TrEMBL record:
Annotated source species: Chryseobacterium muglaense
Family membership: Belongs to the barstar family.
Source organism phylogeny: Bacteria, Pseudomonadati, Bacteroidota, Flavobacteriia, Flavobacteriales
UniProt superkingdom: Bacteria
InterPro entries registered for this protein in UniProt: Barstar, Barstar-like_sf
Protein name per its UniProtKB record: Barstar family protein
Pfam families according to UniProt: Barstar
Domain Barstar (barnase inhibitor): from-to ranges: 1-88
Amino acid sequence: MSTIYIDFTEIGDYEDFYTQLKEKIKLPEHFGDNLDALSDVISGELEMPLHIEFVNLSVDQLELFEDLLITLEDAEDEVENFTFTYFLEQYEDEDEEIDEQ
């Protein structure tokens, strides 16, 4: 299974997302930078099995990219051998630091 990692620390908008996606996946020339095109390419043009994993999503990005997340979750339900996961960025809580003496 191929796994594609998309790191959201470098993504501020959909243009950034599609730029990084195109660096990671060979998309057809006719690919349009929109969610319908992404859904179409996943359901018919990409080699399966395929797993796409988003890492370092911020809470703000969850809202900004909500439609993207829904599109990929729907594709996971509809396309055999396609899976999708995402992970939020981790913050260290300074109050939780333990002093070792």
